[in-house]
Amino acid sequence: MEIERKFLCDMPSFDLSAYEKTGIIQYYISTKPVIRIRKTDHAFFLNIKSKGYVSRQELEMEITEEEFDNLVKLTDKAPVSKTRYFIPIGNGLTAELDIYDDALSGLITVEVEFESLEDADSFNPPEWFGEDVSEDNRYKNASLYIKGLPE
Amino acid sequence: MEIERKFLCDMPSFDLSAYEKTGIIQYYISTKPVIRIRKTDHAFFLNIKSKGYVSRQELEMEITEEEFDNLVKLTDKAPVSKTRYFIPIGNGLTAELDIYDDALSGLITVEVEFESLEDADSFNPPEWFGEDVSEDNRYKNASLYIKGLPE
User: Fold this and answer.
1) Which residue in A30, A98, A136, B75 has a CA-CA distance of 20 to 30 Å to A14?
2) Does the active-site annotation cover A85?
3) Could you report the per-residue pLDDT of B21-75, keeping only the tens digit for each?
4) CA distances to A83, B70, B135, B140 from A77, in Å
5) How far apart are CA A102 and CA A106, in angstroms?
6) Rounded (to 5) percent helix, strand, coil in chain A
């Protein structure tokens, strides 16, 4: 079970170079249900996700580069490309700040994953977080992949 | 982790009507890695599997009929169609007897899933089980889907 909230935000004013980061490139073989392939700086992953917003089932498997390349052939769109920074925000929580590239350039989002729905509901976002888009389909990466930036 | 052994067999001489059964129809969106969709008499499933023979990682998620139909559109081959009988064979083990239809008509296999590699290794198959094809790629359903019956 994946429980998370997502917010828009501006480029943070603090120095990002102190934080762990990775490049992420991802494609979607299907969006309903979500079948996603992702390449990070370190590894390759295949994910499947059920429907839902704040809470949804997610299964992930590490795959080989060859398997990743096989699956890229099943796609027909440019990947979602972004740099993800991992920013500790207290209470054991980590903000995943995604700065998008290419066609999605200008978009910045921040996601936080929670252990329970109660924790997600009671979360008090830091001041640098912007609009809560947890329940806005347009900001799901699968939507961004298919439809691009919301107007 | 999925640990199983697979055997060819002839049509059993005992009465199958006493056992639980289901029809199974499955398609493959990819075979390397395996992305499989399956329809049974009761539900729809999306599976992903890593490489391997007796032991391999397998993740399964239940999906809706609409999601299943969406994923069928990504395939371009006739499905593997079979009837599966669940036959208890003692020691808490169940033989899954698959009687294939359509292009795979004539093929009958039986699979047993184990809790551990030790249990799989020490398994003493019942007399009605035939040749052990656990490590024969040609009898993986993904191969049967792509290549049909072995010659």
Assistant:
1) A136
2) no
3) 999 999 999 999 999 999 999 999 999 987 755 666 789 999 999 999 999 999 9
4) 19, 18, 37, 31
5) 9
6) 20, 40, 40
- State the DSSP code for B132: B
Chain A contact set for B71 (CB, 8 A) = 30, 33, 35
Backbone angles phi, psi at B112, to 5 degrees: -130, 130
ipTM summary value? 0.83
| Mean pLDDT per 10-residue interval, chain A, length 151 residues | 92 96 98 95 92 73 94 96 97 97 97 96 96 95 94 81
Q: How many angstroms separate the CA atoms of A97 and A86, rounded?
A: 7
CA atoms of B109 and A90, how far apart (whole Å): 55
- Is the Cβ pair A74, B29 closer than 8 Å? yes
CA within 13 Å, CB half, A70: 14
- Report in angstroms the alpha-carbon separations of B16 from A113, B12, B85: 49, 8, 8
Cα A16 to Cα A14: distance, rounded to the nearest angstrom: 6
Contact (Cβ atoms closer than 8 angstroms) between residue B50 and residue A84: no
Q: How many CB pairs under 8 A join A and B?
A: 59
Interior angle at CA A59, CA A53 and CA A62, nearest 5: 135
Note whether B34 contacts A: Cβ–Cβ < 8 A: no
Of B32, B48, B70, the CB nearest to A70: B32
The CA-based angle A123-A127-A132, given to 5 degrees, is 55
β-pairing, B80-88 with B94-100? antiparallel
Both structure tokens of B8? 């060819």
CA distance A145 to A75: 11
Is B35 in contact with A35 (Cβ distance < 8 A)? yes
Say how far apart CA A85 and CA A98 lie, in whole Å.
7
